[in-house]
Here is the input.
Amino acid sequence: METSKTKTSFYRRLYVAWLIDSGTATSVPAIMDATGMPRRTAQDTLLALGELDIDCHFEQQSGERNNAGHYVIRDWGAIDKHWIAANLQQIKAVLGYP
Here is the structure.
C-alpha cells in the first residue's frame, strides 16, 4: 500500500522533532546524517514544525558566530512525544529510514 504525501510529511516532521528532543540530531548537518535528507529538506522540515504547533528554537552558542549552536524543542503543542517514541520503528519504516 502506498503512503500518502500528507502522512510522510507529517511523520517526517514528527521524526525530526523527536531527533532534536532526544538529542540524537540537533543541527541541520546532524539531521541530514541521521535521515539522509538533503539540506533544503531538513531546513524546510524544521521551519514546518511550527505548523504542528511544535515550538522548535535555535539556541546560539554564546560567544560563537555563524549560527554555531543547536535546536531545541521548547513545546510539543498537541503532539504526544511518547507516542512518537512508542511508534518510532513504524515511522522510520514509512519514511524509509534505517
About this structure: The beta strands are 55-60, 69-75. The helical segments are 5-22, 28-35, 39-48, 81-86, 88-95.
